[in-house]
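yo

u said u wanted the structure for the complex thing, so here. seqs first:
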Amino acid sequence: TAGITQAPTSQILAAGRSMTLRCTQDMRHNAMYWYRQDLGLGLRLIHYSNTAGTTGKGEVPDGYSVSRANTDDFPLTLASAVPSQTSVYFCASSDRTSGETDTQYFGPGTRLTVL
Amino acid sequence: GQNIDQPTEMTATEGAIVQINCTYQTSGFNGLFWYQQHAGEAPTFLSYNVLDGLEEKGRFSSFLSRSKGYSYLLLKELQMKDSASYLCVLMDSNYQLIWGAGTKLIIKP
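structre next:
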């Protein structure tokens, strides 16, 4: 199976432009996550969704929005990109049951540069 | 608050054993993960500990002491392919993951 796919692999974006990073999983996991990874820092959670139709804010949600219209897709939108959003973005999913631990599975990442 | 400390970088020799330490501070604890991340790739799951003690999985073992806020990942019979970053990850009382910055492990022949 493909697991989790992300698109695009990389992108250079002009500041002020909008962009949507795509994420699709075929494992029928109920929970999905968006992280950013910056040099010298741990992964930071941007937004998450515990089930289709619901979303929540993570540690660094400002400047980003998400939607979860169905189980498989979890797009991340930057409405007006700024240079500080230059990062590597990882999408992840897990078969999470409320109150229990889970293992997260990651997509290959999107490398975004905002100029 | 929550905090995770692990060394930034370590170097070891092929065939040897290396121990990567992780200390943490948290007000709530629901487990500790170790993930492996090769350069330019996504993190992949290695281990999970929620109770004190050692969990062994092939060449990799992970240890947890909740009272000391301490974990380590032990890698035996090191291979060149083990060169990667190793991420210590805490699951807090809300079942959210708090990620350490990672330890870059360099394996030399």
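Chain A has a mean pLDDT of 93. Chain A has no helices and eleven strands.
cya
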